[in-house]
UniProtKB/TrEMBL annotation:
<dbReference type="GO" id="GO:0005634">
    <property type="term" value="C:nucleus"/>
</dbReference>
<feature type="binding site">
    <location>
        <position position="172"/>
    </location>
    <ligand>
        <name>a ribonucleoside 5'-phosphate</name>
    </ligand>
</feature>
<feature type="binding site">
    <location>
        <position position="155"/>
    </location>
    <ligand>
        <name>ATP</name>
    </ligand>
</feature>
<keyword id="KW-0539">Nucleus</keyword>
<dbReference type="GO" id="GO:0005737">
    <property type="term" value="C:cytoplasm"/>
</dbReference>
<dbReference type="GO" id="GO:0036431">
    <property type="term" value="F:dCMP kinase activity"/>
</dbReference>
<dbReference type="InterPro" id="IPR033690">
    <property type="entry name" value="Adenylat_kinase_CS"/>
</dbReference>
<dbReference type="InterPro" id="IPR027417">
    <property type="entry name" value="P-loop_NTPase"/>
</dbReference>
<keyword id="KW-0963">Cytoplasm</keyword>
<feature type="binding site">
    <location>
        <position position="121"/>
    </location>
    <ligand>
        <name>CMP</name>
    </ligand>
</feature>
<feature type="region of interest" description="LID">
    <location>
        <begin position="154"/>
        <end position="164"/>
    </location>
</feature>
<feature type="binding site">
    <location>
        <begin position="82"/>
        <end position="84"/>
    </location>
    <ligand>
        <name>a ribonucleoside 5'-phosphate</name>
    </ligand>
</feature>
<dbReference type="GO" id="GO:0005524">
    <property type="term" value="F:ATP binding"/>
</dbReference>
<dbReference type="GO" id="GO:0047506">
    <property type="term" value="F:dAMP kinase activity"/>
</dbReference>
<feature type="region of interest" description="NMPbind">
    <location>
        <begin position="54"/>
        <end position="84"/>
    </location>
</feature>
<comment type="function">
    <text>Catalyzes the phosphorylation of pyrimidine nucleoside monophosphates at the expense of ATP. Plays an important role in de novo pyrimidine nucleotide biosynthesis. Has preference for UMP and CMP as phosphate acceptors. Also displays broad nucleoside diphosphate kinase activity.</text>
</comment>
<dbReference type="GO" id="GO:0004017">
    <property type="term" value="F:AMP kinase activity"/>
</dbReference>
Length: 213
């Protein structure tokens, strides 16, 4: 399936050509829903030459795009707290990375937030991005479930998100525990996880500087 979708490009993609000069350097950012991934990524971007790409934001944009063939599917998955098939997500991420580097070739460092969230995400990344990007490490915002839920419910008062409600959150937490934690553990086995105690206040968390090279 994946090779059918991605493996038969006749013209080398821009990402491939630019990666011969400067390979994208990637930090995966993981943690429970509401752990503060987006908040901390914004802080990192202020101080370091990273571009923040949130898989969730890209999916929400695609959901809202007029004429999108997968908008309805994305909407259903998000509401149910399930992980969208990687064929969709990896294309959005790859396209966003290419656009960023096309605009400015010095922008080759990426914080990829909320990805890879399950085995399917990881396989899709390995299939499509193998040799085309270097994954430096996983930045893991570690935060208890109750704190995560409270933060999302608070965010839900103004976010307009269809999944910042208790019913969706219970499903998102299950997905996180069952599908995302094993991915973090896998990277941990390879010594590639930098863990941050994300339960503290925003300023304390950002002082941690675990993303420094
Ligand atoms: P994520 O991207 O991991 O889902 P966000 O960065 O969107 O999380 O944060 C979720 C909510 O919690 C937001 O409303 C944000 O303002 C708030 N928040 C983020 N980090 C903290 C923190 N350390 N302490 C308290 N609230 C936080
Ligand atoms: O990271 P964020 O909280 O914005 O993700 C919201 C939702 O987007 C997830 O609960 C999931 O339904 C979807 N998503 C996904 N695959 C990803 C990232 C997010 O399906 N890699
Ligand atoms: Mg987020």
């Amino acid at each position: 399936m994946l090779s059918r979708l991605f493996g038969s490009q006749r013209v080398p993609s821009f990402l491939y050509r630019v990666s011969l000069i400067m390979k994208p350097q990637v930090v995966f950012v993981l943690g429970g829903p509401g752990a503060g991934k987006g908040t901390q990524c914004s802080k990192i971007v202020e101080g370091y030459n990273y571009t923040h790409l949130s898989a969730g934001d890209l999916l929400r944009e695609e959901r809202a795009r007029e004429g999108s063939e997968c908008g309805q599917l994305i909407a259903n998955y998000i509401k149910e707290g399930k992980i969208v098939p990687v064929e969709i997500t990896i294309n959005l991420l790859k396209q966003a990375m290419e656009e960023t580097m096309q605009k400015d070739e010095k922008k080759f460092r990426f914080l990829i937030d909320g990805f890879p969230r399950n085995e399917d995400n990881l396989q899709g990344w390995n299939t499509v991005m193998d040799g085309k990007a270097d994954v430096k490490f996983v930045l893991f915002f570690d935060c208890g479930e109750e704190v995560c839920i409270d933060r999302c419910l608070e965010r839900g008062k103004s976010s307009g998100r269809t999944d910042d409600n208790r019913e969706s959150l219970e499903k998102r937490i299950q997905t996180y525990l069952q599908s995302t934690r094993p991915i973090i553990e896998l990277y941990e086995k390879h010594g590639k996880v930098r863990t941050v105690d994300a339960s503290r206040c925003v300023e304390e968390v950002s002082k941690c500087q675990r993303w420094c090279p």
